[in-house]
Write a sequence for this structure.
């Protein structure tokens, strides 16, 4: 397809259900003032599906569950909670919501957007932890942006991505 | 040009001298562990050409000067210094380096990379300012990344970009 004629490919949907949920959740979060990145590795080596930073530095982590099987096989989601002020699961509309624990947030999303079905309780991070998570987020986002903007460049600090 | 055949356009040079200096400087900084973004507006409404964050949260600001005329017409560069630990000018190799003040850093770059010709003195930010600059940087980088990755989405918070 010629340059300038690829409008249809530019708005294509992500290739997977998890990718669709991620895109819609990032749009939802941005509308709420939280700018997010996907797949951020935390200091405990767990990888959060989405981490997002709010206007006052609030940190949200979202774990995406593309299916019941995906949810049931996950024994590690509680490991994310010490790294955020608010924790959410994000699922599609066909997911049985009663499976989601009641003491975490719940987002329903598709490839185009989403909604916060249940707000997450706030468990405020201590200052040093918040600082460390924000720094990691900042450097990761900038590194990824550079990789996208500068196709001739590849980051050598694999630890960041 | 067909998809998959645009290798040459992917590695094309930026369209301007300032764009070339920016790209090379971002590559240089990344090699030093500083991940940067271009055109970050500061709390005083000045727009830094490049802001970058180091591994321990160090903040560098780089002002790009594409020509002597560009340098001479700039009366505002000192306004960036209260927002960073290190301040640099970045110029191309043909720029007369003696024009650059001796008490700031100097980078020489082209579209492919660069070098720190003179290290910037450190003027350490206070904690609250560093926190605010890092937060702004984090949200800006993530917002830009989302705009690149999600062509169907546009940020409505113009203040961020």
């Amino acid at each position: 397809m010629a340059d300038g004629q690829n409008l249809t490919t530019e708005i294509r949907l992500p290739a997977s259900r998890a990718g669709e949920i991620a895109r819609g959740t990032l749009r939802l979060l941005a509308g709420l003032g939280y700018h997010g990145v996907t797949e951020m590795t935390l200091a405990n080596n767990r990888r959060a599906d989405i981490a997002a930073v709010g206007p006052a530095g609030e940190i949200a982590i979202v774990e995406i569950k593309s299916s019941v099987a995906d949810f049931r096989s996950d024994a590690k989601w509680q490991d994310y909670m010490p790294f955020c002020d608010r924790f959410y699961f994000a699922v599609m509309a066909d997911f049985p919501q009663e499976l989601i624990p009641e003491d975490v947030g719940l987002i329903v999303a598709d490839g185009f957007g989403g909604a916060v079905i249940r707000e997450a309780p706030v468990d405020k991070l201590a200052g040093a932890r918040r600082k460390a998570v924000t720094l990691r987020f900042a450097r990761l986002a900038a590194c990824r942006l550079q990789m996208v903007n500068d196709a001739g460049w590849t980051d050598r600090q694999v630890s960041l991505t």
Summary: The first strand of chain B starts at residue 35 and ends at 41. Chain B touches chain A through 44 residues (CB under 8 Å). The mean pLDDT of chain B is 90.
